[in-house]
Every structure is written in C-alpha cells, then in structure tokens.
Write a structure and sequence with these properties.
Chain lengths: 133, 160
C-alpha cells in the first residue's frame, strides 16, 4: 500500500483522485492546493508517491517538482495534466517527475501510471478496471 | 475550425467518458454580439499564436449531472457545493480545450492556455469593437450548456 500526496488546485480533481487512489487500495496522506503547500506537505508526510498538477497558483507544478526533488532525491512524482501540455510534461520529466497521467482521469490510467513506477503494483491488462471519469 | 474541434471533443468526452448522449448542437458564428450566461460559467484564455477567450456555461440541471458523474454519487458537503460546481465547470473546459488543442490551427503548437477562471453572477458577456463571437448550444437529456469563443483579434478569421 502506498501513501500518496495529491497536489491540485481543483477541488473536484482532489476528490476524484482521492477516490481513485483509495479504490486501488492506497492511502491519501495529505492534499495540497499550491506548489508551496506541496513542498511543505512532502517534508511533513514523506509520501511514497505524489500526484502533481502542472498549472497552479503561486508556484507551478514543474517548479514544485524541482524543489521536492532537490530536497528528496528519491521522490516519486507523477504529473496530472491535460492534452496539449506536452511541453510542460517534458519539462516536468526533466525536472525529475517519473510519469504522467492525461485527463480525463480514469482508474485504469492511474493504475497503469502507478504500476509503471512501482513494479509491485504493475497490472495485467486483464486486471484493468472499467473506465471511470 | 476551433469551434468545430471543441464541439467534436465535447461529444466524444460526454458520450465516451461520461455516458451522456449529445442530442443536438446549434452553432452560430459571427452573428451574435452578446452571450447569455447560464448558471455556472468558466472561461479559459488562449495566448501565444492564438488569442481567444473560450467560455463554457452550464444550466442548473446539466451541472447537477456533471457533479453526479464527477462525484460518483457521493454526498456533497453543502459548504463545498458552490466550489465543487465551479471546479467542475473549470475542469470541463480545461479538459475539452486540452483534448481539442491538437485540432486547433497549427495543431495547437505555440498556443498557451490560462488556468480556468470562474465567472459568478454574470448574465451576459458582450463583444467589443471588432471582436467576433462563435457559439454552440449543446443539448443533452440532462440539460444544456454552451461553448463560446470570443476572438478579439479575428485571429482565426475564416477558420474559426
């Protein structure tokens, strides 16, 4: 079971991700609405995994990734993004993020992204759950 | 071109990912000078190679359906209700534009998008000077919503 930090300025996405993560058997240890909150929450909770929005007020997700990785080299951060932000995704990966999920969010996409980062949670295609917005 | 791309992705998103069938779409380009807002409205600006304001506006029943889908039937804390609805409107336009961007002029390369902005208590938006409005009304079994583009520079001109 993974302890997960959700970082997103959208309330509905925080709720959605929280539900999907818990459906997969993991625990949401904290959520954050801004990049600065994310840095502080990471230091406090030391989660196994972070889901990180790219566009947020006060500090974008890429900058937050850089800060977290500089202090915690083994941090595992997955970006949550819309199509059309490919350049931002590339910058995030260069900054140290280990993967990304494209919206609309589904349980399947989240499970695949987690499985690619943590091999013990890798899923077989036959195990994939139904699409879920 | 931009409005058509948005309409296509709205249909795909609603029907394939949310199980909501689009019954009818009524679009008009360059005819109206004023947009009437519904109950919940959010907008996103595009910049870089394409300067547009893109506005989505949901009526009450359509928003209720969207919230039901996003929340998967979970109870909503009444204190969070407005924020959730505004958040849903913002996520919808953000996702629709993100999905549509590769179909924008130049395949969306060099086009930047702002975070969604919520508009509260507005009844209408009017165009200014030489800007143009293209709008589409989307009808579903659960309610209606509109997607509109204000092009302040006629940057898409005949393509829009």
């Amino acid at each position: 079971m993974l302890n997960v930090l959700i970082v997103d300025d959208s309330l509905i996405i925080r709720k959605k991700l929280s539900k999907l993560i818990e459906n997969l058997g993991h625990t949401v240890v904290a959520d954050a609405q801004t990049g600065q909150e994310a840095i502080e929450a990471y230091a406090t909770h030391k989660p196994n995994l972070v889901t990180m929005d790219i566009t947020m007020p006060d500090m974008d997700g890429i900058t937050a990734v850089k800060h977290i990785i500089s202090d915690h080299h083994d941090a595992k951060i997955i970006m949550v993004t819309s199509h059309g932000q490919e350049d931002m995704v590339i910058k995030s990966i260069q900054a140290g993020a280990v993967g990304y999920i494209l919206k609309p969010l589904t349980q399947e996409k989240l499970a695949q992204a987690i499985g690619e980062v943590f091999s013990e949670y890798a899923i077989e295609e036959s195990d994939l759950l139904d699409d879920d917005f | 071109m931009v409005l058509d791309a948005l309409i296509l992705q709205i249909k795909l998103l609603l029907q394939d990912d949310m199980g909501v069938t689009v019954n009818n779409v009524q679009s008009q380009r360059g005819v109206t000078s004023k947009l009437s807002m519904k109950s919940y409205t959010s907008m996103i600006g595009t910049g870089g190679k394409l300067s547009l304001l893109i506005i989505i506006s949901f009526d009450q029943s359509m928003m209720d359906k969207m919230v039901e889908i996003f929340m998967e039937g979970e109870e909503i804390d009444p204190q969070e209700e407005l924020e959730i609805k505004n958040s849903v409107a913002g996520e919808m336009i953000n996702t629709i534009i993100g999905l549509s961007l590769p179909s924008f002029p130049g395949r969306g390369k060099g086009v930047t998008i702002t975070p969604p902005i919520t508009i509260n208590d507005a009844s209408s938006i009017s165009k200014h000077k030489n800007s143009t409005i293209a709008t589409a009304e989307i009808h579903t079994d659960f309610g209606n919503f509109s997607i509109s583009i204000i092009d302040s520079e006629n940057s898409t001109s005949q393509e829009k």
